[in-house]
Every structure is written in structure tokens, then in C-alpha cells.
Write a structure and sequence with these properties.
- The N and C termini lie far apart (about 130 Å).
- This protein has a domain of about 120 residues.
- With about 280 residues, the chain is mainly α.
């Protein structure tokens, strides 16, 4: 008899516990709906949280809890968007033909570490405002370091592209010189000289960018540089490469004039040969 009564009591307690749990869930959902209806914007919620700063009423406790929930949701959205962009960046790096295998490996490892870090942070967000702020600060620091590293690599890729164009252009100058000599095309000498000068200027700017890049790498290696100084180096390198690109564009315009002249010279040569045969 006692055993039966004990079982009944246990069943009642379990049922009561389930009811209270369901009631708490329903109440929590209702509170969330009320909060969403009251606070249409994040600014309104932030303002209410400020008002509740030293208030320990049930309302203010619920407001703070809801504020943390909203913050966590937004942080997760930020992390997921960043992870998506980093994966897109990985694809671009893998396909990039201007980077060596070793450079790709270094960059991809850094991206993978940042993605893994974001995944861990995303899955372990605390229910504490102070700790959430610390996590955001940690994220910003990781993001800033990665952006610096990627900025350096990006400019290095730009320098290599400029170098390749300069190298091809220098070979082209030699071909032009042979053409001038073969056809006695002295009219092209002036244009060829201008073309060569633009290429040389582009190469000078590129060499200045290389010097800055090496200096930056040395300072990073010796750990005697700040984040703001790194950004300043990247900016200067970028400016030098833009100068180089500008000169290459000018050289390309001159090259078009040269090619036009060459076509005319060859056409005249062809006509003269036909007249001679006749």
C-alpha cells in the first residue's frame, strides 16, 4: 500500500514538474513576444537597458535578458556572414596564379584558423553582457590582424602583376628596336623612346614598392611595428603600385600608336613590293 502511494506521489511530482517546465517555456515565449512588440528597434531596447542599469525589478531583469538574447543573435549573424566571406576568399586564393604554393598555404592556414575561431566563439556565446563585449573585442583583434596580413599579401600580388607587365614591355621594346632597324622606321624612334620611358617609370615605382614591402616584412619579423604603422606601409605600397599602373596605362596608349604606325609601314612595304613585281 505504501509503495503504491509512493508511486502515485512520484507520478504527481513528475507531472507537476513537466507542467511547470511547460508553463515556464510558454511564459518565456510570451515575454519575448511582449519585448518584441515593445522594442521595435535596437535603439529603443538599448535605451531601456540604460534606464534599468541599477534597477533589479523583474521587468528590468527581463529587459536585460532579452537584450543579451538579441545581442547574441546579432553576433551570430555577424560571425556567419564573416565565415561565408572568408570561405569565398579561400576560393579566390586557391585559384590565384600570382601566389606561390607556400604563400597560398600560409594565407589559407590563417583563414582556416580565423574560421575555426569564429565557429568556437559562435557556439559558446555567454549569457553575460561583459563577456559578450570581451568576445566582440577578441573578434575585432583577430579580424584586424588578418586584414593587415591579407593587405600585405594583396599588395604583393599587385607588385608581381606590375612586374610581369614591365618584363613583357621591356622585351617588346627590343622587338620594336629590331623593327625600326629592319624597316629604317626612324619615325618610330620618338614614340618608342616615350614608351620605354613610361615603362622605366613604372618599374621605378614598382621597385620602390618592393623596397617598402621588404622593410615592412623586416619590421614585422623583429616585432617593432604597430598596427597603424602596418596600415601606413600598406597604403604607401599601394600608392607606389598605383603610380606604376598609371604609367603602364600611358605606355599602353603609346603602344597603340606604335602598332598603328607599324601596320601602315608594313602596308606601304607590301604595296612597294607589288609595284616592283609589276
Amino acid at each position: 500500500m505504501k509503495t503504491k502511494n509512493l508511486i502515485k506521489i512520484l507520478v504527481l511530482l513528475v507531472a507537476l514538474n513537466l507542467f511547470l517546465s511547460a508553463f515556464a517555456v510558454a511564459q518565456g515565449k510570451q515575454q519575448k513576444i511582449q519585448m518584441q512588440q515593445k522594442f521595435q528597434t535596437t535603439a529603443q531596447l538599448v535605451e531601456e537597458i540604460k534606464k534599468c542599469k541599477t534597477n533589479e525589478s523583474d521587468w528590468c531583469k527581463n529587459v536585460r535578458a532579452y537584450g543579451i538574447e538579441v545581442a547574441k543573435t546579432k553576433i551570430i549573424e555577424v560571425f556567419e556572414a564573416k565565415i561565408e566571406r572568408l570561405n569565398e576568399l579561400k576560393e579566390k586564393i586557391e585559384k590565384n596564379e600570382d601566389l606561390s604554393s607556400e604563400e597560398k598555404k600560409i594565407i589559407l592556414e590563417r583563414i582556416d584558423k580565423l574560421i575555426a575561431k569564429l565557429e568556437i566563439l559562435k557556439q559558446n556565446l555567454p549569457d553575460n553582457a561583459t563577456q559578450l563585449r570581451q568576445i566582440l573585442q577578441e573578434y575585432r583583434e583577430n579580424r584586424e590582424k588578418f586584414n593587415e596580413e591579407y593587405g600585405i599579401i594583396k599588395e604583393k600580388i599587385g607588385e608581381r602583376r606590375v612586374g610581369l607587365i614591365v618584363e613583357r614591355a621591356e622585351h617588346l621594346v627590343k622587338k620594336l628596336e629590331r623593327f625600326i632597324e629592319k624597316y629604317n622606321a626612324t619615325d618610330l624612334e620618338n614614340l618608342t623612346q616615350k614608351f620605354y620611358e613610361k615603362i622605366q617609370k613604372a618599374n621605378e615605382s614598382r621597385n620602390e614598392a618592393i623596397a617598402l614591402w621588404k622593410e615592412l616584412q623586416e619590421r614585422i619579423k623583429n616585432k617593432n611595428i604597430t598596427s597603424s604603422e602596418i596600415r601606413e606601409y600598406i597604403k604607401k605600397i599601394h600608392e607606389k603600385l598605383e603610380e606604376a599602373k598609371s604609367n603602364l596605362k600611358e605606355a599602353n596608349k603609346i603602344l597603340k600608336e606604335i602598332l598603328k604606325e607599324i601596320r601602315e609601314i608594313k602596308e606601304k612595304e607590301k604595296v612597294n613590293k607589288n609595284e616592283t613585281i609589276e
